[in-house]
Design a protein that fits this description.
The chain is mainly α. It is elongated and about 60 Å long. It is built from 6 helices and 3 strands, in the order αβααββααα. β2 and β3 form a beta hairpin. α1 crosses α3.
């Protein structure tokens, strides 16, 4: 998880991010066109600019200027964002404790052997992938 990134966004901001994650770097006009024509919004330039500015302030979007045009792109991948968001939720709501999270997930009933085995397998598989 990168520092100085705010791992939260509004539903409207997420439309911009998902577009950039899927399509790569885009100009303001391309973002505007996508939101208004493909997503059925009726947003003015100032509204879209506000969303982009907020995403930039959160460290989620960066911009490159080439000549007169500014091109926006995602500063983190979708996976990095999801991981950062998960860590934030774990920290904010469960004191960083996976045990507290699992207790909440199971309604305080604990986990059965099958779930524990599946969880252990998933962790071991993820750990093995990172070692390669």
């Amino acid at each position: 998880m990168r520092k100085n990134i705010i791992y939260e966004m509004t539903q409207s901001e997420s439309l911009v991010m998902h577009y950039l994650w899927r399509e790569g770097a885009k100009s303001f006009v391309e973002i505007m066109t996508y939101l208004n024509e493909e997503q059925g919004r009726d947003w003015k330039k100032q509204t879209v600019n506000t969303f982009i500015k907020r995403l930039t302030d959160k460290g989620l979007v960066t911009a490159d200027e080439t000549g007169k045009n500014r091109v926006y792109y995602a500063a983190v991948t979708n996976t990095e964002y999801e991981q950062g968001k998960a860590v934030k939720i774990l920290k904010d709501y469960y004191g960083g404790s996976i045990g507290s999270f699992l207790s909440a997930l199971t309604g305080g009933k604990g986990i059965d052997k099958n779930f524990a085995d599946a969880l252990r397998s998933a962790v071991e598989e993820d750990f093995a992938e990172k070692e390669e």
